[in-house]
Request: fold
Amino acid sequence: MITKKQTSSFIFAVPALLMLAAFFANLYAEGWNWSPSDFLVAGILLFGAAFFVLLVLSSGRSLSSKLIISMIILLALALIWIELAVGIFASPFAGS
Reply:
């Protein structure tokens, strides 16, 4: 049986590994040029989404509700990430 501590450790390990991969890609990959503020925004987005998914999973809702709400959170994360990267909605926050 998976404990609550194991679940939260896994949920927060995913964004940590993604940030670690981005850090090493920034060091060694050509064309990857993130500034410290890019890492800050990415960390806030990834760990914020992980926090909200953990809140949803620890709620007393049904499994289908938890999955739907978690997918909405991840979709919002993806849309915000894409907007900041390439600007699909042409907002003032759009990237290059």
Remarks:
- The two ends are 46 Å apart (CA to CA).
- The mean pLDDT is 91.
- Residues 13 and 50 are 9 Å apart (CA to CA).
